[in-house]
Amino acid sequence: MKDPVVAKRPARPGDTGAERGVAAAPHASEAPIPPTPEAPETTKAPHVRPGDRIFRGLATGSGVFIVVLIGAIGLFLILQAIPSLGLDNVNFLTSREWNTTDPTNLRFGILDLTLVTVVVAVLALLIAMPIALGIALFLTQYAPRNLARPFAYVVDLLAAVPSIVFGLWGLFVLGPVLFPFSEWLIENLGWIPLLAKGNVNVQLGGTIFTAGIVVAVMILPIITAVSREVFERTPTMHIEGAIALGATKWEVVRTTVLPFGKAGYVSASMLGLGRALGETIAVAIILSTATSSFGWSLFDGGSTFASKIALAAPEFNDARSAGAYIAAGLVLFVLTFVVNAIARSIVAGHKEYE
Amino acid sequence: MKIQRHGAVLGLVAASALLLSACGSDNNAPTGGTNNTTSNAASVPVECGGKTKLNAEGSSAQKNAVDAFVQAYQAACPGVDLAYNPSGSGAGVKNFNAGQVDFGGSDSALKEGAETTDSTKRCKENPAWNLPLVFGPVAVGYKVSGVDSLVLDAKTTAAIFSGAVKKWNDPAIKALNGSATLPDKDIAVIYRSDESGTTDNFQKYLKVAGGWTKGDGKQFKGGVGEGKEKSAGVAQAVGSIDGAITYVEWSFAQDNKLSVAKIDSGAGAVELTAETAGKAIDEAKIKGEGNNLVLDLDSIYGSKAAGAYPLLLATYEIVCSKGYDADTAKAVKAFLTVAATTGQQQLADAGYVPLPKAFQDKILTAVKAIA
């Protein structure tokens, strides 16, 4: 797991040894380099050892590989999408129509898909972020040591549940359970556009509301795991200092753990958001497709990019129709890219906490 | 300490993997009764032999039927197997044409143009044949409390699925159901959100018989209601709300205990049974040439024959007329022979309609001619 906060810590001037011991565990990071027999520390010009060279080659290779891979995916999407985009008879970016039955009259636009995708993902994030924060703080600050570890495994296990299982759970269990609550919301708070009566049957639970909650559960372990790792590395000196000043537990968390871990927590959430944007099968199973377009209600149905593609993919038999879906996939690719870029910039903008 | 932690994680992962794999379900194909709706089942000799492992791919609508065929095939020819990948009709045609599978399954016949020319190339410059081996009736399933019996005609069905008729006690429905008391309740239309041959056939039926103007194709065009994923999704949805209606393969309607509407094509209300659906197959005209048994679906959908249930989904096996190597040809012929005879006996249990005798003979003639 990548953790820029930790990786950069030892380089900071003014670091104390004690802090570094907590933060980066130097002995562990040196372990992979095998000691060579004739390794006295001399003042000679540094000569590169074979192990060093191999390791560097492998690391560089991996880095280049992933860049090439992403480039290739992007290129594939663009090449497949362009012919269909040229045949599109409506505006690709602003149309809400999606009709690819007749390859000679393609009419597809992504506005509805974008809105539903973003709303599902944002709802999931809004639910998952505070809960993940609570879990991570509990595991690192409040839970007894011997309870924290098994607890963390259980949370991680959540990430191992296949998304189709979450989908079925959402369809058969959560949807019906949410019905009375959803109905109550619509009846009493329906004047808020977000909670207005939607374009699908609330009783079936195939709404953005249900899908958002299920996706929230799915991204919970990712956000929790990364946040936990970051919070765990809060310098003991800071914590002890706060306690010495008479801070209560909550004040310790607020003044040391949170400021220190904020950047890591935000980037963990962005990682979760990326997953939420691309969640496919669970959303395809839960979310009802609607015949009218998205009207800004959480109780609307619709399709996300990924679910739209998944629902149509088995019956692709014309390159032009398939290209329309691949064009949608391309937009999702770009959207995820933008989200990650935002996450990176947020992390970079919080350097003062490192 | 670090190592111990990893060990514990590994242990947990291994344990849960074991647990999960232990839960894997065995797909027990229906083994139930063998009702002899097809008369000459046992009398056709099967020439076993050739390749022991066949590959096929395509329409998921015929997956359960193919499972039943494979069982019958293995019973007739010990030691053989056929792997059917239900990845969809589009994929089935594509991979058949690419020579990846021995035959393809599709819920529509090969289209003129690229699909046909590619298939000819794949069969070493011989035509590919479309053999309609599996017929599945599509039920108009509904759930309205207090309404156990409902009669619909194509015109009213089209009106319901396009949003023109919105209430269960609409005069159009009342006119067809004289005595029944229909509630003043909204009709909740449920359709397939995924692209599906069932949707395509349903819309084609409405177009031929019910004046449907919304268009056909694998996406639902009615502009009303909400979509759920796959047959299981729509059937489950209709089962859980009062006042819902959908079109779904018969077996799913049965499994989810949905009421099935009777269809009135002009000669009285017809209940969906294996017999009434078989009667509609008998009415079918073939528009393909020779042994290429492409169906004229309009002749089924538009059928006004008394006692025939016209809403059927026909799925084809797409095979080469010639151009297989000797081993493959022998095995394909053996499999199709079994599928058209003993294999059909179990179909009723799986929600399909066994082939009527006259139609079966046509298929067998075609299978025999494969070289």
From TrEMBL, chain A:
Keyword annotations for this protein? Cell membrane, Membrane, Phosphate transport, Transmembrane, Transmembrane helix, Transport
Transmembrane regions: 58-82, 113-139, 151-182, 202-223, 280-299, 322-343
Q: Where is the signal peptide?
A: none
Determine the domain of life of the protein's source.
Bacteria
Q: Which SUPFAM superfamilies match?
A: MetI-like (SSF161098)
> What is the recorded membrane topology of this protein?
Multi-pass membrane protein
Can you say where in the cell this protein is located?
Cell membrane
Q: Where is the ABC transmembrane type-1 domain?
A: 114-343
**Which Pfam family is one of those matched by this entry?**
BPD_transp_1
User: Per the record, which residues fall in region Disordered?
Assistant: 1-48
NCBIfam families according to UniProt: phosphate_pstC
- Give a short account of what the protein does: Part of the binding-protein-dependent transport system for phosphate; probably responsible for the translocation of the substrate across the membrane.
The family this protein is said to belong to: Belongs to the binding-protein-dependent transport system permease family. CysTW subfamily.
List the protein's name.
Phosphate transport system permease protein
Q: Which organism is it from?
A: Lentzea cavernae
UniProtKB/TrEMBL annotation, chain B:
Record carries keyword Transport:
yes
Protein name in the entry = Phosphate-binding protein
Q: Which UniProt keywords apply?
A: Phosphate transport, Signal, Transport
Q: Give the source species.
A: Lentzea cavernae
Where is the PBP domain positioned along the sequence? Answer: 51-337
| Range of residues in the leader sequence | 1-22
Q: Which NCBIfam families match?
A: 3a0107s03
Q: Which SUPFAM superfamilies match?
A: Periplasmic binding protein-like II
An example of a Pfam family matching this protein is PBP_like_2
Q: State the family named in the UniProt similarity comment for this chain.
A: Belongs to the PstS family.
